Amino acid sequence: MAMAALRREGRRFVPMISPNSMNAARSSILSDDLAPHGARSISTQVVRNRMKSVKNIQKITKAMKMVAASKLRAIQVRAENSRGLWQPFTALLGDTPSVDVKKNVIVTISSDKGLCGGINSTSVKISKALYKLNSGPDKETKYVILGEKAKAQLVRDSKKDIDISITELQKNPLNYTQVAVLADDILKNVEYDALRIVFNKFHSVVSFVPTVATVLSPEVVEREAESGGKLGDLDSYEIEGGETKGEILQNLAEFQFSCVLFNAVLENACSEQGARMSAMDSSSRNAGEMLDRLTLTYNRTRQASITTELIEIISGASALEG
Amino acid sequence: MFRQAPRLLARATSIMRARSFSTDLPAAPTSDSSFVEAWKKVIPNIDAPKTPLSFMQPRPPTPPSIPGKLTVNFVLPYQSELAAKEVDMVIIPATTGQMGVLPGHVATIAELKPGILSVHEGNDVTKYFVSSGFAFIHANSIADVVAVEAVPIDRIDPALVQKGLADFTQKLSTASTDLEKAEAQIGVDVHSALNSALTG
Q1: What is the residue range of A215's domain?
Q2: Does the keyword Cell inner membrane apply (chain A) (predicted)?
């Protein structure tokens, strides 16, 4: 009779638990090993275990959010200070993302660690879209990947197009020297007419805008200057110093790439920390809600087991009186 | 401890929001329309990414008469040393020698060598030692100087300069491979420029 009561209680629980939560919790309550072997009352052990683990997860995600907030504060200052760095180049050479060149190199910047929301997927989506945009007869597009997460996603379908991939960028705090060496490495090993750097620009803690910055090779700059358009008045600039105009333009392109890459890497790092903050925040909020629902279930289970015991005792007593 | 967390975080985020980004977003965002259109044709589902043009203040056009002051932007990777400062003259250390830039200077692209950059504003002269970089002088009397490192010269220690010069001269004489020679030569160049900056 106790078992019949238990079955009735079990059936009564099922519709009370809200449908969109804890399908797993429901199945564990209805599963066979509800109680340790030999016990007679309903056990709250399973629910209690789940509550403990959810509470731990909530603590961890809250701590991760704090850590991300403090890292963000540190790196945001540096990113804002580096924002003046690419402006002179854009003022001189203009911004020509729609330039038509044969060899495109897409430099995708992403994070090494996960749990940072959707920013890496966004960067990879934009990189793949740029690849599609710039594909055509007799044009080739290659990838240079900074960061583990983009590499994992791009290696799946574009493995043959990846030229260089660099990881563990943020092992030491980011500085210009490191990025300059990296830029030098990339430029030495990759043939390019146009470099397109894809990154997430940091606007605010909740807003990260995918951005594409274009750096042209000196030959393309000369070609565009001759054909007029945005770079048309480049010829009106006198070249001071150096041997030939070509050499100066070469140095200029390399310097521009390292400056733009430095700013892009810093902005992406800020976006990563900001995205991690919001991801961990929503995660701890979800954990809190799950904990509330589990507590309700726990209380119900506990009350049901007390009721069952009482019923057993009273029915036993009344059977004795008989 | 975790009860205090929301209050601390709210304070942190409000500080961050207060320190906001009005310096970066322009009054009139512009974008490359041909790029956006080409993007929309091929990839209609995703919004086109922004480009640096939309984050920049547009530059003023060339004025018909020579303006009175030169606007200088002096930027380093770590900060913008001077941002849109109106000055009378700057002297930049181009590879061909010290070059004076006045308002109305012809548009020039100059590569810089290690040397002194001096900014003249009325009677004040501020001198910086720059490592290297580029300077762009535009026709509208705006000068952009992009350098890798710059220090005001009163922060340079003369004793260390002499020591460095001696070290690198010695390394140059004992260098065997081309790479070592080049590195030692760069060290000698920078330190002798520092030396002449301090004495000159």
Answers
A1: 59-230+246-281
A2: no
